[in-house]
Design a protein that fits this description.
With 267 residues, the chain is an all-alpha fold. The protein has helices at 2-56, 60-85, 93-117, 122-176, 215-222. It is built from five helices and no strands. The radius of gyration is 47 Å and the shape is flat. 8% of the residues are buried.
Length: 267
Amino acid sequence: MEAAAAIIGLLFVLFVLAGVFVTVKAVKAAKRGVDRTVAHARRTVEDTTLRARQLAQPGVVGELAQLRLSLRTSMRATQEVLYAGSADDASLSEAIGLFERLSAHGHELDDELKRLEREPDRATIGNRLPDLRERLEQITHSAESLRWAARDRARKFADDDLASLSDQIDVETGALRHWTRVEDAADPLREPVPGRPESAGPVETKTSTGDRPTEGHARAGATGGPSDAARSWGPTPEDPPAITARDPRTQPSYPWQKAPRTEDTTT
């Protein structure tokens, strides 16, 4: 009895631990989902604010907003391409490491641009804009290089796979159409056709140099003597047998056929 109670207590503790574990995992997953939703909403709000500022506030403030928007768009596109391709291509791990290092410079530039938006001295901002624009172009160019290299690599793999698949399909379709053969005597895979000779070329007979046909040969040809084909060493082809009509009295009869009518002959 005590052993049964101990087992029941142990099972209860295991069920409680399993429930706690599942609850913690669900809470963490929900928290990650909320964090992703909040981050996406924050990015959307910031991008919308930057677009509105770019259009509504021309001058230095609008140019800063345009620089920030270009930087964020390029870095986000590169990040999506690299992380999406890394699931199928492990070779992109080094490219992701380089992108993480580039992202540090991108975040630094974005923070500096954000601080300059609150700077009241517009002249100082105008003097620093060429340097900021040059840094932005360098960062976005590196991000675009990584992004397009990853896309070209994925497209090359897709083209190779498509070419291999096309070759396999061609082989399979040829195997499915195994009964078709080219009607050519030179084709080693051609199936012989019954009743058709393999070679239909003329038979030539060679004579020795200086020999002339004698008068007897000429008379034999004129009087319908044996031809060259009859004098050849090969076997003489026989005429095909004549096709005679079937006798209705010898044909098999079936239960669904009527008996053949017999006509009386008078002598």
